[in-house]
Known about the structure:
Mean pLDDT: 96
Low-confidence stretches: none
Shape: elongated
Order of helices and strands: HHHHHH
Bound molecules: protoporphyrin IX containing FE
Number of helices: 6
Oligomer: single chain
Number of strands: 0
Structural class: mainly alpha
Amino acid sequence: MRDSLAAAYPWLKALHIIAVIAWMAGLLYLPRLFVYHAAAPGGSDRAATFEIMERRLARGIMLPAAAMTYIFGIMLATVPGMVDWQRGWIWTKLGLVLLLTLFHGFLERWRRDFAARRNTHPARFYRIVNELPTLAMIGIVVLVVVKPF
Ligand code: HEM
């Protein structure tokens, strides 16, 4: 079991990165859809189209991609001897992953508000929050690749 997990390590990493890319695509694109949705008149055909696009992105891509990121990430983390748990980068990375997960939760709340026609935030708000996952992603990639501490 231990050996086969270690042999599968590069494959697990490849699957982890594929899932991360799909998750990040959603985390970056959903708030961009909210920017346009917030500017569309409530109850219009345009607003209804955004609602469908948002639901499909959230349910069809983001949720499965987040689950796969976690599943393959946890499998990587539990291969014995592969991560030095004394180092700081892994814990900082996991902290940033937690923030991305919280961000995902907020996006889901705002998506439901749009669907119920209860959105209260202006387009500018979504334009600003759109930058947050970019910052977290830059931090995570530098941490996992450079492992600076
Ligand atoms: C529960 C969530 C996660 C866990 C437990 C996890 C765990 C891991 C582990 C143990 C590795 C191997 C590190 C190494 O061998 O050097 C890894 C690699 C990687 N992770 Fe994650 N990860 C998670 C989420 C994420 C997220 C959200 C991102 C990006 C936004 C990400 C990006 C990467 C990248 C790019 C690599 C490849 C680094 C390399 O070897 O070059 N991970 N992850």
